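Retro notes, structure queue

What went well: the backlog is down to a handful. What didn't: a couple of records were mislabeled last round, so from now on we paste the full input next to the output in the thread. Example, using CDP-alcohol phosphatidyltransferase family protein from Elongatibacter sediminis:
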Amino acid sequence: MTKSGTNEAERGDGDGNPVPVAVPGTRPGADRARTCVLVLDESPVSLWGLGAAERLKRQLRALDPSLLWIDSVESLPAQARVLLLNGGYLFDARALAGLLARDGVVLIDPRDGRSVAACVGPGEVVRAAAAVGGESQEPPAGLQRLAPDDLDVFDEALRSARAPLLEPVSPERARELENLLYGNAYRGITDLVTKFVWPRPARAVVHLCARWRATPNHVTTWGFVLVLAACWLFWNGHYFAGLAAGWLMTFLDTVDGKLARVTVQSSQFGHLFDHAIDLIHPPFWYVFWGLSLAPPVAIAVWGVNLEFAALCWILVAAYVGGRIVEGLFPLLGDCSVFTWRPFDAWFRLVTARRNPCLILLTGSALAGHPEWGFKAVVVWSVLTTGVLIIRLLQGLAARLSGGPLTSWLSEDGAASGPHATTFRVFAGTRSAYGG
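Corresponding output:
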């Protein structure tokens, strides 16, 4: 496994498209402006409503809008480098980014040794095109041979560890490949509801959205309506109706992200819209829940009676503090606070983000004591933010003494070492790949 991951611009729980990572000995981004793309031997199979060429165009447009698409080797501009792709294979954005970041390379399917992609200079195009297009069985001599495992395995944006996707496409495998794309779009490290409850039902809804040509922004907009509805319902004491709106919103927040990724749809507006909603609304839900309670909630701490207003400020401060820690931690290296060590992955399941807090509110409503839910959210927010602050300080100490931090998921032997069980749980979300 490699030690560095590919960063992505996220949508919701981590959607978007990877940005090529500079590696030693590769051509800098300025030279890639003259790169052409040629797709050979395109498959007629459509996955999630996209044909091979359209999927590749969307993926590569997000990586580098300056890429020039050509129809044949004969239309190649002079002195241009070329990314050659076999359209009968399914690639993910990390594989494409890895190829664009290198010169004089050919990507090999490790199952049969076939050349399926190459990034080469003008003098090597004809030979490389013959190999990638299937006219030649042997990769051109002089090119560096790469397998998917030779590219970045750890994906920080999705908090998962898996080799970049490379799969042959056939009509018989269409449903299997759609499930593979969906599973690869799912974060490995997230809260317990998103990881263990939402994958299968969300996949069914993503299928419907793709079939009906619904866009991720459509889904996000409905989520925003539900955010406002839950605020009003909580404020007026309609707890179960508010919880229904809240849970449905969190479900759609999973759907819009996966829909964006499997259909390769993203926009700056959608990215900002979705992130703004996710970032801002949770403390409003908790405060409006608290405002509905009569008499107002108070908590006695070490002989000091904290009134409702003080609890609201503590709750908001704990929430904001936790998000600040999450934002600062990546400055210490190539990982987030939840991907640094195995403990952090388990902690992410229950840390006081929206879904775990909704569990506390739901339990209190079912028990007939909604005030318990507000108190529990305040206490749990303070405790988990305290843990995050401790982890930030520990990370800072490790950074000062040992250099930039890296995720345990990117370490050699992580899959078979002392944390093998944790690796199996968090390297991906297995239930997302189900049939």
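Agreed that this is the format going forward. Reviewer comment attached to the example: The longest strand covers residues 115-120.
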